[in-house]
Amino acid sequence: QVQLVESGGGLAQAGGSLRLSCAASGRTFSSYTGWFRQAPGKEREVVAAISWSGGSTYYADSVKGRFTISRDNAKNTVYLQMNSLKPEDTAVYYCAARYRLGVGYNRHEYDYWGQGTQVTVSS
Q: Tens digits of per-residue pLDDT, 44-96?
């Protein structure tokens, strides 16, 4: 079993920054860890993903150049640094772990999920 716990969400102004953390326990050697988000009335979408080694990353077009995903395997933690935040970034952000080969691009390709953390960006 894997437990994922997100933290770091909150309220930010447009143009501001937040850093999300995802702490893993249990079976921690996932092939990829992803950050997803879900806004009210919308599908859950992938924001970014990172391989176990950190050598491979993926970003959705909507966050490229603004968000950075990273990991510290010694702490079993994955981070999402969010800069230049926009009101459209408002959503519940979820951390997810994938134990299959290759990167996953949608929610069905991930095996374990955290409970989510709310990010609200005011204009």
A: 999 999 999 999 999 999 999 999 999 999 999 999 999 999 999 999 999 99
Kindly report the number of other CB atoms within 10 A of residue 109's CB atom. Answer: 16
Phi, psi of 108 (to 5 degrees): -75, -10
Beta bridge partners of 57: 50
How long, in residues, is the chain? Answer: 123
Beta-sheet strands, E only, within 39-111 = 45-51, 57-59, 67-72, 77-82, 91-98
Q: With 0-12 CB in 10 A as exposed, 13-18 as middle and 19+ as buried, what is 123?
A: exposed
Which tokens hold the place of 88?
A: 């459209």
CA angle, 76 then 35 then 104, to 5°: 100
* Contact in structure between 47 and 37 (CB atoms under 8 Å): yes
* Helix/strand/coil for 32: strand
Stated as kind and residue range, the H or E segment containing 122 is strand 117-122
